[in-house]
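Retro notes
What went well: the complex prediction finally ran end to end.
Inputs used:
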Amino acid sequence: MAPSGRALPGWALAALLWLLGGPAARADDYQLGHGLDLGPFNLAGYSNLVGNLPDQGARSLVLDDLSLFVSGHVAGWLNPFMEAELTGATLARSGAGPSDGDLVLERLYDDAYLTDDLTLRLGKMLAPVGEWNQIHAAPLVLTTVRPAVTYRNFSEYVTGASLLFSDPQSALPDLQLYWQPGGELSERPATITVHQYADVAGAQVSLPLGLLDRVGVSFQSSRDVRGVRQSLFGLDAHYTVGPLTLAAEGTFSDVSSSGTRLARDAEWGAYVSAAYALDEEWSLYGWYEGFADRTRSSVAADLLLGAGYHLHPASVIKLEYLQNVGGQPVNPTGLFASWSVLF
Amino acid sequence: MTGWRIAAAVLLALLLPAAARAEELLIIANPSVAVDGPLSDEQIAAIYLLKTTLWPDGRHIVPVNREASSEIRARFTGAVLKEDRASLAAYWNEMHFKGQRPPVVQESEQAMLAFVQNVPGAIGYVSASLAPGNVKVLAHVP
């Protein structure tokens, strides 16, 4: 494993594990998906093993994510959270050897509970744009292949301050405001991210319709490191009717650059998905997406169909086929499979 | 014959309330929890859905659940949380990824009781027939 220059050092992760696993720590009975309780801390993570069989290009077996996250509940003002992950470690690849992947810092923040419904978060966190980005762990999301609109059109991370309002009775909409002055803490290397952002600010309002159902509106203003400024407006929805779950996300960004040549002055896209639970283990799913990338004149259109099998509520196997049906592809046409575990 | 029927009816009337009490669930909390009044179903649900995370004195709430196959958990889920098992599992997985610890699982009534008795901030549920000691009873769930 060869960490990139800006990635979290491996020794830091090992030291943290050692500290948490010391003799003073108390481990309760372990439950898959619930993590390991060590005193006021909980050690958890997820893995995602992906088989990529695109119609064109190299076939590969990739440890797409091996994530470790630690959450602590020490006091009302001290609730630290840290997530580091190994991403993109290629175990086998047609025509080439394995590669090490990157070790990156996903999240590092503290939550201070100001009141029962108001939290101040300081540090590096996931940006609340749509739903997928906030629950992007493979065992939690619908498909192996991620729709482009859930990550390509905005800053996925915020390093700075955020204020979160959540009504315990869910009678009022959830609200999150956030602000990042300057660049991202431990910025993800350019090899694994589409755009690198700075000076990010935004808000999300989310109206709960049920336990998992919601309608959300997102705004985000940002500047990428090449000087492109953008203002995003997004909508998302998640709705369940019996065994059928419908979800959708759409974003529209007004992009303006002073020096960088772009193919269009607005980047936009949307996907609509449907999943049907045959029982508690098997499900069928699919999505359709259109995405107009800022650097491409054509609008990519993709259709995906697949099936999932839950070995456990915290472990799922997915098999799916994606077909590009228009425009220059963002995601390749082909067969994809994954096995993910939340542990 | 009529006398036997009357006697049977009287006996049934006497036994039914006791049986109902035995079926009742008690919401119990660690004695250190600074709440005395009864909690509503909505307040209990907000705790188990990780929306209310602190007791009024600022201590963290530690909700405790029974194992997924438990009959008493099914009763609690149906009466208080009013959600299906798969949806709750997905919800707690999401909340865990967002940094909220899902309810701790204890696999027997005795283990649940011992956990709540010993862990500050803990809240759980047991059958009323257990007659628990050294805990606060915060609510009765019929």
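What we learned: Strands of chain B lie at 25-29, 62-66, 104-106, 122-127, 136-141.
What to try next: split runs per interface for comparison.
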